[in-house]
From TrEMBL, chain A:
Belongs to the RNase PH family. One of its GO terms (biological process) is rRNA catabolic process. This is Ribosomal RNA-processing protein 43. The keyword Metal-binding does not apply. GO terms for molecular function: mRNA 3'-UTR AU-rich region binding. It is found in: Cytoplasm; Nucleus, Nucleolus. SUPFAM superfamilies: Ribonuclease PH domain 2-like, Ribosomal protein S5 domain 2-like. Residues 1-127, 154-217 form the Exoribonuclease phosphorolytic domain. Keywords: Cytoplasm, Exosome, Nucleus, RNA-binding, rRNA processing. Pfam families: RNase_PH (PF01138), RNase_PH_C (PF03725). GO terms for cellular component: cytoplasmic exosome (RNase complex); nuclear exosome (RNase complex); nucleolus.
Automatic annotation (TrEMBL), chain B:
InterPro entries: ExoRNase_PH_dom1, ExoRNase_PH_dom2, ExoRNase_PH_dom2_sf, PNPase/RNase_PH_dom_sf, Ribosomal_Su5_D2-typ_SF, RNase_PH. GO terms for molecular function: DNA binding; RNA binding. This is Exosome complex component RRP46. Residues 5-102, 106-169 form the Exoribonuclease phosphorolytic domain. It holds the Pfam family RNase_PH. Belongs to the RNase PH family. The keyword Nucleus applies. One of its GO terms (biological process) is rRNA processing. Homodimer. Component of the RNA exosome core complex (Exo-9), composed of EXOSC1, EXOSC2, EXOSC3, EXOSC4, EXOSC5, EXOSC6, EXOSC7, EXOSC8 and EXOSC9; within the complex interacts with EXOSC3, EXOSC8, and EXOSC9. The catalytically inactive RNA exosome core complex (Exo-9) associates with the catalytic subunit EXOSC10/RRP6. Exo-9 may associate with DIS3 to form the nucleolar exosome complex, or DIS3L to form the cytoplasmic exosome complex. GO terms for cellular component: cytoplasmic exosome (RNase complex); nuclear exosome (RNase complex); nucleolus. It is found in: Cytoplasm; Nucleus, Nucleolus. Keywords: Cytoplasm, DNA-binding, Exosome, Nucleus, Phosphoprotein, rRNA processing.
Amino acid sequence: GSITTADGSALVKLGNTTVICGVKAELAAPAVDSANKGYIVPNVELPSLCAERFRSGPPGEEAQAASQFIADVIENSQMIVKEDLCIANGKLAWVLYCDIICLDYDGNLLDASVFALLAALKNVQLPLVTINEESGLSEVNLKQKNPLIIRKHPVATSFAIFDDTLLIVDPTAEEEDLATGTVTIVTDEEGRLCSVHKPGGSPLTGAKLQDCITRAITRHKEVKKLIDKVIKSITPK
Amino acid sequence: SVCPGDTSVLAGLYGPAEAKISKELPDRAALEVLLRPKVGLPGVLERSREQLLRQTCEAVLLGVLHPRTAISLVLQVLSDAGSLLSCCLNAACMALLDAGLPLAALFCGVTCALQPDGTILLDPTARQEQEARAILTFAIASSNRKVLMATTKGSCSVEEMQQCLAAAQCAASTIFQFYRDSVRRRYSKC
């Protein structure tokens, strides 16, 4: 991956928007009420270097809303099932910290973040962990690494709405600022909707929304092909 | 305050008032939404809900009539028994109505739950939400029943989403009638 110290990482450029995602895996005890589930913790950061509107300090509303959106996409699409992250029921499970950092903001943050997350998770190699029966301690075998089981491949497509009629796919920052609303559709490979995210903005008819969804499904196929091609090209000897 | 079933949200609207120089916008009113959960401090989920509510309200509010002012909408969750987001949307709209702010249209929030067997349930309880395969929340505008806001939890097929949307648009009429009745009742006393 792009970050050598991370367990998995990916850098995505959508036009000028650049987003890097790094996944670090750590071990933790699972929660008491879900003893067979691990954790996935996404965090989207918009540092002040990506655009002049973001100041340094605590995360602003846009970063927090984006983090929540990514968490929802992971949950809704079931791309990683938390049960797969469990090593020993009630004792040990993986925690995947997914840090998504925007390096250059030129609009369409959500699409780029979802792609980066998907590519980074496909890139993750987790070492094999076994629990020693006698001592009760965990043994990490760094020589033997397995990729994550990714069940679904969600792809996000964003549209900018202008005055109830015009829809522009993959808006730049300038188009987003002038738009009267945005819509983000996340689909998976079976054509099912993982998320329809329309945070306010000018109203849309059901037919227009249907139009967006059909385009999103078409785009999904292209993006999936690209991700597969890239992952195959970097598969180690 | 709005209470469908056992979910209850209290909304307070302050404005248009003088805005801080850092927050004022030169051509329109600056709307700020604060959502306070029943227990705990507001977290990332509240922030994302605040963004949804703020942009929905901004779409209907005629902010250009009050430039360089600040409008603050504070929502306090009193109890949560399912369909919380649509309850907040309804509370926000009624607060905007009650304050007498200029609006282009009214909006209402409707939650649809898709059961595992395919039936659509409107305004589900917390129990029904947990069992449901997918939960879709829509904000429908009163002028032309168009979709102002949409958010989904869980995955569903495209046809199912369209069915839920149609059901939500029908239900919206009932909610708008409720708005009318409440406002009529309020102003018939004085």
